[in-house]
Amino acid sequence: YVSGTVHEFNGGILPLYIASQNLNKKAVFVILEYHDWWIMKYGDILSQLAGHPILDFSGERRIHCFRASLIFETCWHGQCLLASNRSFFEAKEREARETLSLATSLGAPLHIAKVVQQGEIKKHKLVVLFPNGSRALTNEDSLVRMAGEIGFRVEVPRPGRTSELAKIYRALNSSDVMIVAHGAAMTHLFLRPSSVFIQVIP
Fold first, then answer.
1. Most exposed residue of 13, 24, 171, 188, measured as fewest CB within 10 angstroms of its CB?
2. Domain residue ranges of the chain, discontinuous segments joined by +
3. pLDDT 10s digits, 112-156
4. Burial class (CB in 10 A: 0-12, 13-18, 19+), 168
5. Degrees, nearest 5: CA angle 191-193-194
6. Which of 73, 62, 33, 66 is nearest to 50 (CA)?
7. With contact defined as beta carbons under 8 Å apart, do 118 and 112 qualify?
8. 181 has which bridge partners?
9. Which residues fall in a coiled-coil region (predicted)?
10. Which residues pair with 95 in a beta bridge?
11. Residue that wins the pLDDT comparison between 127 and 47
């Protein structure tokens, strides 16, 4: 487990996605260090990657027999894994987005679109996503105020360690423009095609 949704997604979920695709989703995931908050956060996605329930290695008391097993080590931030599977990943990126969209839409509340009156201009949604600490945006308040003045509908999500991924995905996927700190490399999977993605480099 690493701090930050993006790193957890990059270093954990994506390698599991690649493995499950190679196995045609005929996989059983066994978690060595089981945490309820992690399952609550990513359970909807994991349920789309394997056809069997997730096993808690430390708490499981039953005996399971498998014809074969595969143990693999992921590289944090996914650099070496994605480099060695670049062609596969690029070919499957659209499918990965579809899987993510399907998983995070489960149990989602019904969205009722507001009727836009004739002559009314629909505001584009701008999401500003910066972490606290060393990569915080010092003039975030000014940016939000200016964006609102020029016509954007601004949203500033504050995802925490236990934030439900479905809520984060819906917030980012509904945006027209997203401004993030440099290094948020996996957030492009959360965006709709043709959205504008801006990274601020310190």
1. 24
2. 5-105, 125-200
3. 344 445 555 678 999 998 877 777 788 889 999 999 999 999 999
4. buried
5. 110
6. 66
7. no
8. 200
9. none
10. none
11. 127
- CA dist., res. 147 & res. 57, Å (int): 49
Q: Do the Cβ atoms of 28 and 66 come closer than 8 Å?
A: yes
Which residues have C-beta within 8 Å of that of residue 163, sequence separation ≥ 6?
A: 5, 41
3-state secondary structure of 129: strand
Residue 42 burial (C-beta neighbours within 10 Å; 0-12, 13-18, 19+): buried
- Return the minimum-mean-pLDDT range out of 45-54, 146-155, 178-187: 178-187
CATH architecture of 125-200: 3-Layer(aba) Sandwich (3.40)
Encoding tokens for residue 30? 């066994």
Residue 155's φ and ψ, nearest 5 degrees, are -130, 135
**Strand, helix or coil for residue 49:** helix
* Average pLDDT estimate for 156-178: 81
Residue 107 carries which DSSP code?
Answer: T
Return d(Cα 75, Cα 54) in angstroms, integer. 21
Q: Rounded distance, CA 131 to CA 154, Å?
A: 17
**Residue 177, pLDDT above cutoff 60:** yes
Dihedral, 26, 32, 34, 38 alpha carbons, nearest 10: -60
> Using the 8-state DSSP alphabet, how is residue 58 labeled?
T
Per residue in 52-102, pLDDT (tens digit) is 888 888 888 888 777 766 655 444 444 444 444 454 455 556 666 666 666
